[in-house]
Give the backbone structure.
Amino acid sequence: MRRLEALSNTIFGVAMTLLAYDLPKASRFASAPAWRDLANAYAQPVIALMISFIVAGVFWLSHHRRLIFAPEGSRGQVFLNLIFLLSIVMLPVTNGLYGAYRLDSVVAVSYGSHLTIIAGLNALLWILALRDHRNPELLATAIFPVFACVFATVLAIVAPSVAQFTWRLAFGAPLAGWWAARRWPPRAN
């Protein structure tokens, strides 16, 4: 798992850096741009980059926390981790589309589906890591983003302009974990 951790650091770092690849280049402008030109060229791509960068950062933190919590894993868990990392590698692709066409339903649903896959794989890995432990806080924190992403993706089908604000619901995961810990406290041995 230590080698997987080193690989994941590299993959997350490269993917998070490549998020900026689709930002408009200065050569797009024939002369020095006005403020309005800059806003028109950069607003949507920068917003998408910030959302995806924060999402990737949160999943990177979760991934490392999980590897610390469960420092050993089966061959199947390592393979599932590699699939999870593949979903992170693909984030710059859907981010580029979302940055350019975030109000298009097909693109918003594609982006949301991708975020749902990432959240789902992360949750599955946490479920495997927690299978011998009763920790409702960590479980709720891992599962909550899946529901938030599914909700935002379904909303993107009919209202992509509203869905762009609902991805943030996934950041309520710590609150869901806090609530679960209070609702189902650990049993005394």
